[in-house]
Amino acid sequence: MKAIAIFGAALAASLLGTSAYAQAADAPPPPTSTANQTTTIGLGVSYAPTYEGSDDYSLAPAGLVRGNVGGFNFFSRATALYFDAAREPDGQTTDLLIGPMVNFRFDRSRSIKDPVVRLLGKLDTAVEVGGFVGVGTMGLLNPYDYAQARVDIVHDITGTHGGTVVTPTLEYGTPLSTTTYVGAALSADWASGDFADTYYSVDAAGALRSGLPVYDADGGFKNIRLTLLGNQMVTGNLAEGGWSIFGVASYSRMLGDFKRSPLVDGFGAFAGRGDADQWFGAIGIAYTF
User: Is the whole model's pTM more than 0.85, yes or no?
Assistant: First the structure.
């Protein structure tokens, strides 16, 4: 049932079988015309780097939202909010994903633990707007799994970095029973030169203040990321909703000039202030109604 698939996948990214399964006694019920007319709200706590590339971590609140109004889906992915402008017909197993999105980027706009990086100064929160396009389908390995391929393109409208970020993503999720859902996502970020310069370059003035070497970062692929999730219903089931507990774990590896930045791994004989290996975790509770 697509309602089951989308329910679990939305939990994953908001933060993220065999034929024998379909014959099991606890197999999900058949689709209904109102199955997707639900809303999911979740709250939790995350453990993440203080900025992308940092080796300092901190706890922060995490949230997610997903809903469907009149056949149109809206959903969150970490700090981004999406609206799918392609109406989802009842009973269709493959659908087009296309619509607007907005993302809020908080890198180095809040508490910076590293005393050297702190000397470079804080940045304003960036508001990035753009859109996404993709395709989703269910029934690849069992009747109730769901896969999605999507590309997001956003551009900063606040002047914080004035750049563009492109994110291709592959997602897959499947129920293990009527109450348990697991999924995975593989994604990468390509960032423009303006983005790289703002977050990962060090100019002469910054070098003088911090003692870091002057560094000019070029745009390119910033990272590649693998995300895993699990969702366990506490009341109700995946098709009808209720209370659930979710967990998300993610690993990303920074690439290219972003990895070599003095704020991350560094270059040559200079040891950077951060780490190209980035870890993220979140746990929380969600309610679907």
Answer: yes
